[in-house]
């Protein structure tokens, strides 16, 4: 891909720097297509898809295809995926519903950018089985239980996870329509989930100390203006550290790159481009010259923690850069979330 076709944010990251970040992700990809957290680290199905999306946005379509084929090959007969792999071996057999839904987001993004309908159609049964599995775990209010194992489901719903599933369901419905396989049952399930996210906080475990519970209902499209603006303003000083980025949790002196870039995407989705660009600029203190990114910084003592440069952090940076720069046809994957 020509540099002119790569995302770039003027004065912050050039197209060449974005290409280096994509290369840092590609360098960790394993021969079977899996994208672990870092070379030799474990792979989870959600962050794997996030990395595939970044590879797509950076024009590395063949590597993204390999990643999505890995997803298809590792899906179980019930439509789920194990939570964690390491170099081809399953380390955690439980299923995280959010992980199982996210392939729909990745493949809609891939279709928007590559136009490769045949490839997406080939993987459509994998998406369909994953979404059908997730919806077997929908609760009383429309919430989605977060995990399932040998003893059944967890009985617990998480606001962040259910918000991400809401977005993935919208992508799945869009794919279903585009591929001539409409799923009105998914539309109804998504509407129930959206209602739960907006109107039934009692359905979700209280994890309000996590910044993701603050911004994810906005990032997912479940909450939009004016309620989104009110939500952002209410907790801005709790989670945003001036000049450094966003905290992962409210009660720890720790800013993280992925959460900051997801907040950038949420702000972009409600047209607060100025705040989004400022945060995106500030989080570049986590960048290394090879384009990789440290997961976070403990600002109380100025130390990187954990001492990992994660593929999914670089991926979040690339996706945020694409959204801010409006570069690829997939730049609006979060901004134009389907209404319910």
From TrEMBL:
Keywords: Transferase. GO terms for molecular function: transferase activity. InterPro entries: 6-hairpin_glycosidase_sf, 6hp_glycosidase-like_sf. One of its GO terms (biological process) is carbohydrate metabolic process. This is Prenyltransferase. It comes from Nocardia stercoris.
């Amino acid at each position: 891909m020509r540099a002119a076709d790569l995302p770039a944010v003027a004065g912050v990251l050039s197209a060449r720097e974005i290409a280096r970040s994509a290369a840092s992700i590609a360098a960790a990809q394993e021969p079977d297509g899996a994208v672990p957290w870092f070379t030799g680290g474990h792979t989870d199905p959600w962050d794997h898809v996030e990395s595939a999306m970044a590879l797509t946005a950076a024009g590395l379509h063949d590597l993204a295809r390999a990643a999505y084929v890995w997803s298809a090959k590792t899906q179980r007969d019930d439509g789920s995926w194990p939570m964690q792999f390491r170099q081809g071996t399953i380390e955690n057999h439980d299923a995280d519903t959010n992980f199982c839904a996210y392939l729909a987001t990745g493949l809609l993004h891939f279709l928007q950018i590559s136009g490769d309908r045949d490839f997406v159609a080939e993987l459509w049964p994998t998406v369909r089985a994953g979404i059908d599995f997730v919806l077997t775990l929908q609760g009383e209010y429309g919430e989605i239980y977060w995990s399932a194992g040998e003893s059944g489901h967890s009985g617990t719903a998480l606001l962040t996870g259910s918000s991400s599933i809401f977005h993935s369901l919208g992508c799945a419905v869009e794919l279903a329509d585009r591929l001539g396989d409409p799923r009105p049952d998914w539309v109804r399930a998504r509407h129930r989930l959206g209602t739960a996210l907006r109107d039934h906080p009692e359905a979700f475990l209280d994890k309000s100390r996590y910044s993701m519970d603050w911004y994810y209902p906005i990032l997912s499209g479940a909450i939009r203006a004016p309620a989104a603006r009110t939500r952002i303003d209410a907790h801005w000083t709790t989670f945003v550290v001036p000049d450094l980025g966003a905290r992962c949790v409210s009660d720890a002196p720790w800013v993280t790159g992925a959460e900051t870039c997801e907040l950038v995407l949420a702000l972009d989705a409600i047209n607060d481009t100025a705040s989004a660009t400022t945060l995106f600029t500030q989080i570049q203190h986590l960048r290394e010259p090879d384009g990789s990114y440290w997961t976070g910084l403990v600002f109380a003592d100025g130390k990187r923690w954990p001492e990992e440069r994660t593929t999914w952090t670089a991926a979040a940076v690339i996706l945020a850069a694409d959204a801010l720069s409006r570069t690829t046809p997939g730049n609006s994957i979060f901004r134009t979330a389907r209404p319910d």
